[in-house]
Amino acid sequence: RGWAEAVSEVTAARERGSGAYSMSQPFAEVLRLPQRQLTKLVFPLQELERHLAPDTRPSLRLRLFEPSLEAIARADGLFTSTAWHRIEYVSSAVRLDHAPGLLRPEKVCFIGRSNVGKSSLLKALFSLAPEVEVRISKTPGHTKKMNFFKVGKYFTMVDMPGYGYRAPEDFVDMVETYLKERRNLTRTFLLVDSVVGIQKTDSIAIEMCEEFALPYVMVLTKIDKCSKGHLLKQVLQIQKFVDTQTQGCFPQLFPVSAVTYSGIHLLKCFIANITGNLR
Ligand SMILES: Nc1nc2c(ncn2[C@@H]2O[C@H](COP(=O)(O)OP(=O)(O)OP(=O)(O)O)[C@@H](O)[C@H]2O)c(=O)[nH]1
Ligand SMILES: [Mg+2]
Predict the structure, then answer these.
(1) Of the ligands numbered here, which is closest to the C-alpha atom of 161?
(2) Is 84 exposed, middle or buried (0-12, 13-18, 19+ CB in 10 A)?
(3) What separation in Å is there between the alpha carbon of 112 and the centre of ligand 2?
(4) Could you read off the pLDDT of 262-273 as tens digits, one per residue?
(5) pLDDT, position 18
(6) Neighbours of ion ligand 2 (CB under 5 A)
(7) Ligand 1 site: residues with CB under 6 angstroms?
(8) What's the CA gap between 255 and 37, in Å, rounded?
(9) Are 158 and 92 in contact (CB under 8 A)?
(10) What are the b/e assignments for 131-150, b being 16+ CB within 10 Å?
(11) In total, how many domains does the chain have?
């Protein structure tokens, strides 16, 4: 289905004013981009796929989650803060028993090495809620607490401290306990730096997710820093790792850039979908 049709469909939906949230203005702009630019921004894996030899294509699982542009547009609305639908910081905690109550569905958290780009990713996902403050830093080990953010009445997202270099001392107690015991956690996003690929420290998190049998999703960060060839190599390598060495990892990778926003819209749509909010 062409994107031009999606534009008119979504525009019509917006004019009808249907639903608590509808397409964000910035996404209307995205839909006006030339096809190639739009694909690169919204479907970065598809853009890479064009450079693969036909017989290697099946190794990239591109088609597992392939929403329509209309669905992506609606998800963008879910991540837009309005007076009726507030996206906001809730609280921070260093221990599980300090975390917000379990009544609100938690749904998603972001884990990964320090400096991999967890806070930056959250900030990019919240770019249409500019009043939400997510702190990022060049210095690894910046996020010291579990930070809870709510997306209206729908769900909560958690930014975690990183593991590895300059990780907080109580990291293990904090993050392991959280992952193991948080009953309302539906999906864990495990971030891997696309420039360097899976490192020893990443294996800690992978093993943790596997051991606790958590459903998790691998996100490749900072893709703006990779050449096309390098990114393709990393994506294929990591995809192979996921296919052969993991049980609980969703077999489609999500490459993103918090700088160019490549892959961010698709990830918003995936989160809307797994939290049951893609109406
Ligand atoms: N070029 C580029 N830089 C990024 C991207 N995402 C994050 N960075 C940079 O990477 C550094 C670390 O980012 P953070 O988001 O603070 O990383 P973090 O994973 O939250 O780190 P800790 O809180 O220390 O665990 C910062 O200098 C960011 O500007 C990206 O997509 N592209
Ligand atoms: Mg951080």
Answers:
(1) 1
(2) exposed
(3) 9
(4) 999 999 999 999
(5) 46
(6) 118-119, 143
(7) 112, 114-120, 136-138, 140-143, 161-162, 221-222, 224-225, 257-259
(8) 16
(9) no
(10) ebebebeeeebbbbbbbbbb
(11) 1
Q: Per the structure block, which two tokens stand in for 251?
A: 């077999």
Q: Is residue 87 part of a domain?
A: yes
Q: What is the pLDDT of residues 116-150, one digit of tens each?
A: 999 999 999 999 998 898 888 888 877 778 899 99
Summarised one tens digit per residue, pLDDT across range 17-76 is 444 455 667 888 899 899 999 999 999 998 888 888 777 665 666 668 989 998 999 999
> Tokens standing for 142?
């910046």
Residue 149 lies in a domain: yes
Residue 76: enclosing H or E segment and its boundaries? helix 69-78
Q: How far is the CA of 122 from the centre of ligand 1 (A)?
A: 10
Atom of ligand 1 nearest to the CA of 135: 16
pTM: 0.90
DSSP state of 158: E
Write the CATH number for 264. 3.40.50.300
Does 279 reside within a domain?
no
For a substitution probing ligand 1, which of 120, 165, 222 has the most ligand atoms within 8 Å of its CB? 120
Give the burial string for 51-75 (b: 16+ CB within 10 Å, else e): eeeeeeeeebebeebebebbbbbbb
- Does 35 reside within a domain? yes
Q: Whose CA is nearest to atom 12 of ligand 1?
A: 115
Domain holding 118, by residue range, is 3-274
Task: Phi first, then psi: give them for residue 200, nearest 5 degrees.
Answer: -55, -45
